[in-house]
């Protein structure tokens, strides 16, 4: 169902995105590393999950954010190896990886004990499977969280991935990221000190729906649940919510349940407010000035000088260098974008909620 608010797993529950699927599947087949980028709620996890199901070989989905949370804010080799074993053992039950047990993996003449294994051992084993079954893919959703792997900003994992890149042709990686700049920084393709320096990878970008597609999406979704909704209501909804599928789905679902435009919109905005508040709290932990800057930008203070005035009025003095670095980070995290010297909030729903 198009209006199901969870990330989609099946192609028939997805609206459009043919180009993204095609590009992602091609990347998966042809490149050792493919990255899928786009702002929050645009549909990355859905596209990734569906593509992994459609992929011919074995694809393993890992949620880096969940791994990070499970480790209480860090991520260790043993957590990752354990999670991989658990997923592979699950796939084993489905019949095509019979040698995988939680206590021992024996496949194609290789045998390892997950408890004692390094991530490289697991990569080599997967590469061995890939030799027979076609390239094995490890897909890390919200991969910017892998920077919390080990104690060196994720470099230990990157070193393993670089080794796989150079020496294990039957193992591939997919990374998604809502915080595009952080993902790029983490991978460090342009950074001499990064293990992945200079490697070639494929990049697929997921954008919000255009105006036209947003309206068609709502129209199709309502049709699917047997509801006839006026063109005017659909247009008003898109005026308010723009083209981010996550908000459109939320609205469609609420309208379907409540049969009332105004109530559906209010419920959607209330849900959005809760989600965005949580995200702002996370940001505030990194710096209390982030929410102030976002608020300033949302209120239309788009230039450097007025942003600084606002932030200083609310939060005390700040140096130019510090403000510059906070603004740059907000860009990297996908909250704001800079155009012709002016800053803007990327997601109009976020903008409205910040304005209060
Ligand atoms: P992301 O991973 O980019 O944050 P998700 O894949 O979690 O985004 O999608 C956010 C919400 O939008 C989910 O409820 C999902 O079901 C819905 N969604 C995203 N893209 C589509 C699409 N093309 N068709 C239908 N629903 C979608
Ligand atoms: Mg996601």
Tell me the domain tally: 3
CATH superfamily of the largest domain: P-loop containing nucleotide triphosphate hydrolases
The span between the termini is 33 Å
Bound molecules: adenosine-5'-diphosphate, magnesium ion
Query: What would CATH call the class of the largest domain?
Result: Alpha Beta
Amount of helix: 40-55%
- What is the averaged pLDDT score? 94
Order of helices and strands: HEHEHHEEHEHEHEHHHHHHHEEH
**SS summary, helix count:** 15
List segments where confidence is low: pLDDT < 50 over at least 5 consecutive residues. Answer: none
- CATH architectural category of the largest domain: 3-Layer(aba) Sandwich
Structural class: alpha/beta
Principal-axis shape equals: globular
The proportion of residues in beta strands is 5-15%
Number of strands: 9
Radius of gyration: 22 Å
Give a brief outline of the structure:
The chain is α/β, with parallel strands linked by helices. 54% of the residues lie in helices and 12% in strands.
Description:
With 356 residues, this protein is an alpha/beta fold. Helix content is 54%, strand content 12%. It is built from 15 helices and nine strands. A hairpin with a 2-residue loop joins β8 and β9 (342-345). The chain is globular and about 60 Å long. The chain starts with 17 loop residues before the first helix and ends with a helix. The mean pLDDT is 94. The structure holds adenosine-5'-diphosphate and magnesium ion (MG). Adenosine-5'-diphosphate binds next to α2 and α10.
């Amino acid at each position: 169902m198009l209006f199901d608010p969870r990330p989609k797993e099946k192609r028939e529950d997805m609206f459009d995105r043919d180009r993204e699927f095609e590009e992602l599947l091609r990347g998966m087949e042809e490149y050792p590393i493919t990255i899928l980028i786009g702002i929050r709620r645009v549909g990355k996890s859905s596209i990734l999950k569906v593509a992994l199901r459609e992929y011919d070989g074995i694809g393993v989905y890992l949620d880096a954010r969940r791994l990070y949370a499970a480790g209480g804010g860090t991520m260790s080799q043993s957590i990752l190896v354990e999670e991989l074993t658990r997923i592979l053992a699950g796939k084993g039950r489905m019949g095509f990886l019979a040698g995988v047990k939680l206590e021992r993996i024996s496949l194609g003449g290789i045998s390892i004990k997950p408890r004692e294994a390094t991530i490289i051992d697991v990569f080599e084993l997967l590469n061995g499977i890939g030799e027979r079954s076609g390239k094995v893919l490890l897909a890390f959703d919200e991969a910017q969280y892998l920077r919390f792997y080990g104690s060196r900003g994720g470099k230990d994992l990157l070193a393993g991935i670089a080794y796989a890149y150079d020496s294990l042709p039957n193992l591939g990686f997919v990374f998604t990221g809502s915080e595009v700049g952080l993902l790029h920084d983490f991978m460090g393709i342009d950074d001499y000190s990064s293990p992945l320096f200079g490697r070639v990878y494929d990049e697929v970008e997921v954008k919000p729906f255009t105006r036209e597609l947003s309206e068609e999406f709502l129209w199709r979704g309502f049709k699917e649940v047997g509801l006839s909704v006026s063109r005017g209501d659909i247009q008003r909804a898109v005026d308010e919510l723009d083209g981010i599928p996550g908000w459109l789905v939320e609205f469609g679902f609420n309208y379907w349940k409540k049969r009332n435009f105004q109530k559906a919109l209010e419920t959607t905005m209330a849900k959005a407010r809760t989600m965005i508040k949580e995200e702002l709290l996370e940001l505030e932990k990194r710096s209390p000035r982030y929410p102030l800057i976002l608020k300033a930008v949302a209120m239309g203070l788009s230039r450097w000088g007025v942003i600084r005035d606002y932030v200083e009025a609310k939060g005390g003095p700040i140096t130019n260098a510090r403000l510059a670095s906070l603004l740059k980070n907000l860009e990297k995290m996908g909250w704001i974008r800079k155009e012709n010297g002016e800053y803007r909030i990327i997601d109009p729903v976020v903008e409205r909620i910040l304005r209060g």
